[in-house]
Amino acid sequence: MTTRKQIVIIGANFGGLTAALRLRGDDDVIVIDPSPHFEFLPNIHELLSGVKSPEQLRLSRQRLLQRAGHRFIQDAVVELNPADGFVQTHSGESIQFDICVVAVGGVNNTFGVPGADEFSFPFKSVDQCHAIGNTLREKFAHQEQVTIGIVGGGLEGVESLGEILRRYRDTPGLTVHLIDSSDQLLSGLPARLGQAVQRRCRNYPVNFHTGTRVQAVTETAIELTSGENLPVDITIWTGGATAPDFLFESGLAPEADSWAPVHQTLQSRFFDNVFVIGDAAELPQPLSKQAYFASDMGECVAENIARFIQNEQLSDFQPSTNLSLISLGDLDTYLVIGNTVVAGTALSAVKEFVYQFNMARYEPPLSLLSFVDLQIRFWRGVIELGLPNWLSPRSLLRLGYIRPISF
Ligand SMILES: Cc1cc2nc3c(=O)[nH]c(=O)nc-3n(C[C@H](O)[C@H](O)[C@H](O)COP(=O)(O)OP(=O)(O)OC[C@H]3O[C@@H](n4cnc5c(N)ncnc54)[C@H](O)[C@@H]3O)c2cc1C
Question: pTM above the 0.85 mark?
């Protein structure tokens, strides 16, 4: 007779939730996260223009985990003790485990820039992006001139720029400053992609400041190391993520601000009974921090937990092809696979499909509530994203135009 094992999963977004939903009822699975909702982060920039609402990007963790036969605790883990096999939650509950999965993601990084925490809007959750969207709407309703500073020209910075242009490019008084410390936008991806984004924005009031760092942020300005002082009405900080203190404090990371090193099997390098997945994990060959890697790791870890319990050899995590779909509002969408870049507004339908498909994958429409939610998401997508194209002959023509972005 085999005894049931107790499995604790810390963090229930792409990595942790996928792992939980893949684990069947042979063991006791407890999932802990301080927030009641799974959040589909790759589309949160759309909250800035309002083409998505917070409800469309969230799923109830309680509903999903209950359906899978697991227990959900809405709380934060404040202590993980792998040697003694227990976690302690913020509200004081102590929970024993045989196996723990750590899927806590990353935290916003303002690199100690003076004023950044106080005066800029972070860009890491549905609530934060919804707050930016509301602030923008308020400013445009009451001011004739609105100047927006976006710190960071990576994926999040470019996608937020696109949503601002989608909604406000025809509104008089708009100015955007986008700042990135590297010499190109979307660094890490082919350089011609960043150039294509800049070209696409040249008819709009967007100023790109590359190769310069933010030195300080105040309520009304962004100071650059180049000596420039940019007056702004709102600063959006998309400048990066770092490892949560939790990883170092639990002994899963060798030093502060470092991700947790894992074997290719996703098992912690320091504790056999702990697996680390998603953004929090650092594989022997580090991967970019992407939702689809986190979710694939969740699948792999569920399989490896079964093997671990049966004393079988664990399998290696095999990352899928690295690809990115980056939208610039309704102006363009770029698909990057390795060194190949293609662009076209029709690709926005692919991005929307990825979102719709994954939301339905996490919560299949097996109950009336889930079915209604899926219908709302689908029809809102049709109305907000499809309809504007079908009603404008120019946009409709542009839909057929998918092109390679070459040197
Ligand atoms: C704005 C934005 C746009 C993005 N766009 C894309 C994209 O287009 N494509 C793509 O593939 N990826 C994209 N990403 C990256 C992607 O969202 C991440 O790689 C993915 O979310 C990582 O999943 P995760 O499960 O590791 O961590 P997360 O999704 O960050 O989830 C971590 C979870 O852990 C919980 N947690 C944290 N600390 C504790 C604790 N102490 N106790 C309990 N729970 C805790 C948190 O509440 C959270 O729910 C984007 C990210 C952002 C922020």
Answer: yes
